[in-house]
Amino acid sequence: MIQGRQAGALARRRRFWRAAGTGLAAVWLAACTVGPNFKPPAAPSPRAYVTDPAPTLSDPGPAEVRQTLAVGQPLADDWWAAFHSPQIDLLVRKALANNQSLAAARANLTQAREAETRARGGAYPQADFAATASRLKTSLLPEGINQLGPVTSDFTLGPNVSYALDLFGGARRLREQKHALTEYQGYQLDAAGLTITGDVARRLIDLARAQDQIDALEEVLRDDEQTVQMVDRLFGLRLKTTVDLNAARSQLAADRALLPPLRQQVAMDRNAIAVLTGEPPGEAAPPDLRLGALALPDSLPVAVPSALVRQRPDIRAAEAQLHAASAGVGIATAQLYPSLTLSAGTVQESLSASTLFTSSATGGFVAAGLAAPILHGGALRAGRREAVAAYDAAYANYRQTVLESFGQVADVLQALDHDAQALNAQQQAVEAATSARDAAKAQYAVARVDILLVLNTQRQLARARMQHAQARAQRYLDTVQLFAAMGGGWVR
Predict the structure, then answer these.
(1) How many Cβ atoms sit within 10 Å of the Cβ of residue 250?
(2) Digit-coded pLDDT (tens) for 329-369
(3) pTM metric for this prediction
(4) Which of 57, 69, 142, 288 has a CA that sits 20 to 30 A from residue 155's CA?
(5) Taking CA 118 as the corner, what is the angle to CA 113 and CA 123, rounded to the nearest 5 degrees?
């Protein structure tokens, strides 16, 4: 009997070491993670966005701010504060708090985080508890008796634990992919914040531009009214004809017709600002702004290309998608290899509830399940090729996003320089048109020129004033565009 016990103990030790050896082998195999290890793409090689960039932009003319490029200077998150406008600051912050597109982006980020947490749960053993109670009456016909057997009860309960060994890293690649997708949604939130803040600033500047053009047009209308009065006075003295008077009145009516489209633009900008800040247009207080109330930033931070790829959220989002696609290759590769699941549990089973939790009712099990793909009609190999193609597409999309971002920066840098040149030219045009208008009106008063010349100079002056307001606004708009192109204004 003693020898039997020793033999039993020896058998148990052998089973223990075999199990331990199996566990160690499984742990060693678990360290094997198939598929590519993701590395962020190398920094781009260009050192500048345009050929021979000038640190100081063109001269915009007297009494105007001359802008310079501060290469390598970091851009503040609250870049809109550089305009020193309480209205812009208030409405941008209101949009960041209440905009519904941002609310949706925040919810998408929360969803991605929870999906990542759910994927991380697969790295741990899974424990469940099950309990059943049943009453059963069976037929005795299989035993040759033509009647029903007695009613029996069956009770089972107990926990069980299972653990899927990640032999080839498929689960780890899945967690890596979920983490990359969480990063993607985070960068999407930042990109949405950048878009919203930029839209609010642009709409306010466009509103100020339209208001300035209305002011300029109202000044033109006052000139038109003075011209009508002058012609009417001369007509009363029989020095001018009805043709002159009708021509002056026609010019006044034509200029008045320019006001409704500008007022409509103001209304549209106000409505858009209300929507961006999360309010119905009918309940929002309409903002009133002029370009003169804004400070144009004189120093413009410009990141070098190698730094831009790290601070623009759309590029970081494309990189996160590339990372997720890389992990997808690992997931598809791991599906080509076997999987192993370990499970164990204890169970209480009895025909009577009163005998549960007794030694005779206690049982248990330990099991290992191995599954290996053999024949899937080429589906698994095709799945891996599909994942590789998805990675190639994500890499091309990343490269395209980088190229487009460089193109946007190049466009806006050149636009800012051209804006300064245009403003200088428009200022000269206003001065020349004003002089021409004054001279024509003076000559007309002494009957030396025709009324058509006076009206023509007035039209030229009106056009010059409107274009001057547009040129001033364009510098502000392109400054906002530069800040957006630099990736400023992340909301996290």
Answers:
(1) 13
(2) 999 999 999 988 888 877 777 666 666 667 666 777 788 88
(3) 0.84
(4) 142
(5) 125
